[in-house]
């Protein structure tokens, strides 16, 4: 998770922002500079959101040893643990919050990456004045990015379906236990 949001996301966001500058300076060399700039701007915003959400969530991820080093025992039995709020229950609640926030950060990252690919596909489309050979090569390159985007979307939708299936299964188990006297 840290690599995704604290290494990859800033690099991709920086790339998007730098490319927006290039598009602004040389817009006549691109077929759809305004559309490309829009996609890259949205990508940079989504990637920055991913970083912000991950930073916010990171403080809720800690180990028992880390909690002990703060001067309180997370087992709730040591003096001062309750006043510090570092019980096993508190750690579990914090971990649940981290899981939720890391999921949101991942979604923001995935959306940013998809928008970055859309922007790249728009950039690679040949301008109207391109030579026929350049046009063919640039359309192939743009198509390759669109294919990568399709794979990206398929993998994300597969993950969503798997999660929905898991949640549905968990809900059935819970309902079975509720109905059992």
Automatic annotation (TrEMBL):
It comes from Streptomyces morookaense. This is Uncharacterized protein. The chain crosses the membrane at residues 34-55, 107-130, 136-156. Keywords: Membrane, Transmembrane, Transmembrane helix.
């Amino acid at each position: 998770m840290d690599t995704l949001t604290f290494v990859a996301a800033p690099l991709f966001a920086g790339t998007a922002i730098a490319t927006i500058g290039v598009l602004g300076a040389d817009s006549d060399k691109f077929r759809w500079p305004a559309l490309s700039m829009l996609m890259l701007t949205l990508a940079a915003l989504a990637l920055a959101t991913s970083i912000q959400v991950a930073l916010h969530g990171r403080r809720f991820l800690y180990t028992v040893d880390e909690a002990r080093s703060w001067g309180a025992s997370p087992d709730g039995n040591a003096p001062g643990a309750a006043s510090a709020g570092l019980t096993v229950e508190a750690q579990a609640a914090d971990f649940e919050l981290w899981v939720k926030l890391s999921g949101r950060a991942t979604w923001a990252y995935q959306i940013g990456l998809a928008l970055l690919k859309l922007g790249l596909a728009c950039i690679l489309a040949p301008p109207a004045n391109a030579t026929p050979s350049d046009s063919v090569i640039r359309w192939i390159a743009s198509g390759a990015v669109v294919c990568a985007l399709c794979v990206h979307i398929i993998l994300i939708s597969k993950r969503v379906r798997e999660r929905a299936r898991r949640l549905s299964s968990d809900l059935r188990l819970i309902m079975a236990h509720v109905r059992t006297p």
